[in-house]
């Protein structure tokens, strides 16, 4: 399994995480980043053909792409997550990932109304500089509209951020933001070893 994954070094960025002991329905997560959809399919086929792979299921898989956010034009700061067109995974110990979908009513609001709510959302995010947000887009590619991944070394900060965001006007327009995956970064060997050695 590990050798098969290593064949894709230089073609696919793979950041492994364990969810063992944290979620009952999956044991590890591979955050994979590539410019080619075919790389995901080819790599998955090779991983599933390995000795370990034959025993694995894929209960969740989310496909998304980077895209410049329309809401960040007047919010500029170093390392700004929504202005970049590439995902640059950090080296935080934890990542919190979930699919995200807005209601139809959100899209019927005026651009100015949506911008006002997003400005509040962005301002709250800035209060938690230890939490790095990666927003990717899935419209037409997968069942969700977005996949969000929050990297941090402080789960407490992420919890406080999410609690504060729940009290915003914009939260009324959230249709779905589950399941949430709490993951701990490991090497691929360490993540595989959590499965029993």
Task: Please supply descriptive tags for the structure shown above.
Alpha-Beta Plaits; 2 domains; 6 helices
Secondary structure elements and their pairing?
Blueprint: H1 2-6, E1 13-18, E2 28-33, H2 37-48, E3 94-102, H3 104-108, H4 111-126, E4 132-137, E5 146-152, H5 155-166, E6 174-176, E7 181-185, H6 188-193
Antiparallel strand pairs: 1-2, 1-7, 3-5, 3-6, 3-7, 4-5
Low-confidence stretches: none
Number of DSSP strand runs = 7
What is the CATH third-level topology name of the largest domain? Alpha-Beta Plaits
CATH class of the largest domain equals Alpha Beta
Describe the overall structure.
With 197 residues, this protein is of the alpha+beta class. It folds into two domains: 2-60 and 185-193, no CATH class; 94-178, Apc35880, domain 1 (Alpha-Beta Plaits, 2-Layer Sandwich), CATH 3.30.70. The chain contains six helices and seven strands; from the N terminus they run H-E-E-H-E-H-H-E-E-H-E-E-H. It has helices spanning 2-6, 37-48, 104-108, 111-126, 155-166, 188-193; strands at residues 13-18, 28-33, 94-102, 132-137, 146-152, 174-176, 181-185. Strands 1, 2, 3, 4, 5, 6 and 7 form a seven-stranded antiparallel β-sheet that branches. A hairpin with an 8-residue loop joins strand 4 (132-137) and strand 5.
């Amino acid at each position: 399994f590990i050798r098969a994954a290593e064949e894709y070094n230089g073609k696919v960025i793979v950041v492994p995480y364990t969810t063992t002991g944290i979620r009952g329905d999956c044991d590890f997560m591979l955050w994979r980043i590539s410019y080619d959809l075919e790389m995901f399919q080819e790599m998955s086929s090779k991983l599933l053909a390995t000795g370990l792979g034959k025993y694995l299921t894929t209960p969740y898989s989310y496909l998304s792409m980077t895209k410049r956010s329309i809401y960040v034009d007047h919010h500029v700061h170093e390392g700004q997550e929504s202005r970049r067109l590439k995902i640059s995974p950090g080296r935080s110990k934890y990542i919190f990932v979930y699919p995200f979908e807005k209601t139809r009513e959100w899209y019927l609001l005026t651009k100015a109304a949506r911008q006002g709510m997003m400005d509040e959302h962005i301002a709250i995010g800035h209060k938690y500089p230890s939490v790095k947000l990666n927003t990717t887009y899935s419209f037409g590619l997968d069942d969700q509209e977005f996949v969000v991944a929050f990297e941090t070394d402080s789960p407490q900060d992420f919890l406080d951020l999410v609690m504060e965001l729940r009290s915003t006007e914009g939260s009324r327009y959230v249709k779905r933001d589950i399941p949430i995956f709490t993951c701990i970064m490991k090497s691929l060997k360490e993540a595989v070893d959590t499965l029993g050695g």
